[in-house]
TrEMBL record:
Keywords: Copper, Membrane, Metal-binding, Transmembrane, Transmembrane helix. PANTHER family: CYTOCHROME C OXIDASE SUBUNIT II, NITROUS-OXIDE REDUCTASE. This is Cytochrome c oxidase subunit 2. GO terms for molecular function: copper ion binding; cytochrome-c oxidase activity. Its main location: other. Pfam families: COX2. The chain crosses the membrane at residues 12-36. Residues 68-170 form the Cytochrome oxidase subunit II copper A binding domain. It is found in: Cell envelope. InterPro entries: CcO_II-like_C (IPR002429), Copper_CuA (IPR001505), Cupredoxin (IPR008972), NosZ/Cyto_c_oxidase_sub2 (IPR051403). PROSITE patterns: COX2 (PS00078), COX2_CUA (PS50857).
């Protein structure tokens, strides 16, 4: 039995195949040459014990400046807020955020910046970014996490490098 494809259907089949090939090719090129890759080296953490020991203890949360001048932020996302609620950061400096969830799936997004990540219970989310100019930035949860989700926010205040250096000398100096 002979198989017959109408010429118009054949053209659409070629067009669809070409579109799929272009999409897959663009994903591969972006992954290879743009340095985009899936997350690896995932850190596992016990969400139920976050507050008891380690870097996510309540007294260790917040912003710290390392001796080399790098800035690290340790946050906990929990119903319904990011803790600490307010942080101050320097402008134009790479900042590494380490965030863990104490309960359910959360997301962190700072509008008008490239800061956005998913915070999965049992894992540590690590993101590095920089804020080019001083100002106040809200930090919002972008994953529905329960009835109080719309109240889950915190505030980042970004100050100039000069103001930051004067107020926060690096640790160990």
């Amino acid at each position: 039995m002979a198989f017959h494809i109408h010429p118009l259907e054949r053209k659409w089949l070629y067009a669809a195949s070409a579109a799929i090939a272009i999409f897959i090719g663009s994903i591969l090129l972006t992954a290879l040459f743009g340095g985009i890759h899936p997350p690896g080296h995932m850190e596992i953490i016990d969400s139920a014990r976050l507050h008891l020991d380690g870097e996510f203890m309540e007294d260790k949360l917040g912003v710290r400046t390392e001796p080399d001048g790098s800035v690290h932020v340790t946050l906990v996302a929990a119903r319904y807020g990011f803790f600490p609620r307010q942080i101050e950061l320097p402008a134009g400096t790479p900042i590494t955020f380490r965030i863990a969830s104490a309960d359910v799936l959360h997301g962190m997004h700072a509008p008008m910046t490239n800061l956005s990540t998913m915070i999965v219970p049992g894992y540590v989310s690590t993101v590095t970014t920089a804020f080019p100019k001083p100002g106040e930035y809200p930090m919002l949860c972008n994953e529905f996490c329960g009835m109080g989700h719309d109240h889950m926010w915190s505030k980042m205040t970004v100050v100039s490098k000069e103001t930051w250096t004067a107020a926060h000398p690096p640790a160990g100096r």
